[in-house]
Specification:
Layout: H1 10-23, H2 27-37, H3 41-59, H4 65-84, H5 86-91
């Protein structure tokens, strides 16, 4: 296994170290977990294609490009709201 050095601001390093410590793991293991959970654009497309196929085959629902775009928009909004925290989510309602 080869090592890679990634330069990040001190605040990011400290946050990652705190997360690793809270999880009882090393920074290396935390980064491996993050990498394993983060999908590439190709993996995202493959999953979307499989989901479309499943919905069509099992439920007879064909997802249009417009439906797909609307769902992506809603997911981005939900993710942004989650990142903003409970106070921001309440104020935007």
């Amino acid at each position: 296994m080869s090592d890679v050095m990634i330069r990040v601001p001190a605040e990011v390093r400290d946050q990652l170290a705190a997360v690793a410590e809270a999880r009882g793991t090393s920074l290396r293991a935390l980064m491996q977990d993050i990498a394993a959970q983060t999908l590439t654009p190709e993996q995202i497309k493959e999953r979307a294609d499989r989901t479309r196929t499943l919905l069509a085959e099992r439920f007879g629902h064909y997802v249009s490009d417009e439906e797909s775009a609307e769902m992506r928009r809603k997911m981005r909004e939900a993710a942004a709201s989650h990142r903003a925290g409970p106070a921001e989510a309440e104020s935007s309602r």
